[in-house]
Structure prediction request, 669 residues.
Amino acid sequence: MASKRRAFMQQYALIAIFAVVYLVIGFLVRNSYYQLMMTLVLIWGTMGLGWNVLSGYSGMISFGHAAFFGLGAYTVTIAFVKFGITPWLGIPLGVLVGVIAGVLIGIPTFRLRGHYFALSMLAYPLAMLYVFEWLGYQEVSLPMKRENPIAYMQFTDQRAYMVISMIVMVACMIISLHVECSRFGRSLLAIKQNQPAAEAAGINATRWKMYAMMLSAGMAAAAGGLYAIILLVVTPQTVFGALVSAQALIVALFGGVGIFWGPVVGSAILIPLAETLHAELGHILPGIQGVVYGLAIIVIILVAPDGIYWKVRDRIMARRTPAKVGAQPRLAEQISIAADAAPESPSCLWSNDLAA
Amino acid sequence: MTDWQWLLIDFFQALAAGLLVGGTYGLMCVGLGIIFGVMRVVNFAHGDFMMLGMYVAYYLVTGFGVLMFLGPYVGPVVGAALAGPVVYVIGWLLHKYLISRVTGARVISAEAEGHYAQIILTLGIALVLANGGLILFGSTPLSVQTPLSRESWEIGLIFFNQARAVGFVMAILCAIGLYLFLTRTNLGKALRAAADNPIAAAYVGIDVDRSHRIAFGLGVGITAIAGGLFAMSQSFQPYIGFDFVIVMYAGVVLGGMGSILGAFWGGLTIGLVQQMSTLVLPYQLQNTAIFVVFLIIIFFRPQGMFGRVWERT
Prediction:
């Protein structure tokens, strides 16, 4: 138990160091464009964390997390515009709406497995997209509040948004860490590896998957709500579009699946890359930024098919304990799990290894 | 004429339009169905291959005017047919150098794994194709010029747009040709064997990797032909792919994943639902209707219309 607690403290310390360093850099940056970019990194990181809780741990790949992101964004916006509810309450409300949507979507969709699950998830945000267009919410902007702007989460300083987004993301990281290292996360892992076997071993697959879906949807909705607050304009295409779902899984898969650092790393690399390319090259030759971004994703995924985090971790582990790790892949290959064995172990497990 | 007679005419008009559009959708879905059925790869770039097919057809017919001598009626159809082989080669090369690295033998042994890399890879290819298309072709919406798209045949009181009708007939012919290829030729049988059980197929001497390469090329080629046919009656721009890939997946899942010809019926259903929904729903909700019908069918018959039950798990 002592080593487990130590592993937890280690992870907490790492998260704290990361958050502080990130915010210090954020506060030193003067350019408001870069500040916005750094905030967007946190929002997409949160979105990726949400995706990871369901799809990364349980292996039920979702192509439709835009549904929750969009509901979060639209809840905040409509509450603000129509009912004058401050985003301070609007975002928790959005999270609630997201969680409820998660349950409603989960009940029928969990009957499906594998590709059928993944592809039916695709349908939800797109069905919602056209409904919101039809309802006349093609483009809703959040009005400026001259009096008492802080009560309406409106700051002149971009960095305030960065702090709020960081708090949300750190909360999601800590939740993910606890999911990973608890019975919850282990159950999801068992479901990912073999659902019938997990059920035979007494794991209530439906219940755990539903919990994962609720958490996941809530995080995605929080990311959507923050997105609305920061960009101040919400359109169905930008929050329900297929690219939003794609972005969630790109940051998570790119960074590393099944580990809460993965989406954070993925977002921290890809969002600045995409934004910089857009700003530097977009006006010279429209489309070139997409080509370079696409090529970057292709190249990196061929080099590190399980994501950056696992590749880097394997390198570090190999340097620290060459003999031990050298033996592992060969054993893993024998039982034909190949390189995919590594991502299956939650972060606290390998910390345990090191501590022991 | 009385009200209900008009209603009946509207109904049949929508039915006709749905069938004509659905035929082309069906062919697109067959292309995706081959790739999914044989390789079990979720190909997000599929819509962008359709986009390439549209541009190939456009440049052959209107841009460079290579096919001008065939006249405005035959030219577009031949252009669409030629888009197939061109995109086949592109798909074949992409599979050889990129996609085969994250699919094939490695995935066979670890079924649930390897999908992550495939998803990212095909998303990356989709981004490169769509944005590369923007650089090469520009963002102006285009369509393949043919007088067919402005004329219709009138049967009774129902109008059949000629471009769509010709596209429908071509799509049916292609689908029949493909069916004969898959059931009658050795290569087609090898593809089906590789789809059913890759390990057993390897044991009886089928080169599974080659089968996958041919299936991928064939899949994108077929969809490119469908794209070329569709381009006669629909304007397009480089970003059209992503909208269509979702409709195509709906069709493939409806037909039953793994059932190549089921995909055709899935696509046809999608076209019918899309056009018929305008009878009762506002125009903007066409696509919502598709997804709702899609979800309903999936929940009551998760293996799709022609899928096999064991495919679910």
Observations:
- Chain B touches chain A through 54 residues (CB under 8 Å).
- The CA atoms of residues 40 and 258 of chain B lie 8 Å apart.
- Residues 38-165+196-238 of chain B form one domain.
- The beta strands of chain B are 152-155, 158-161.
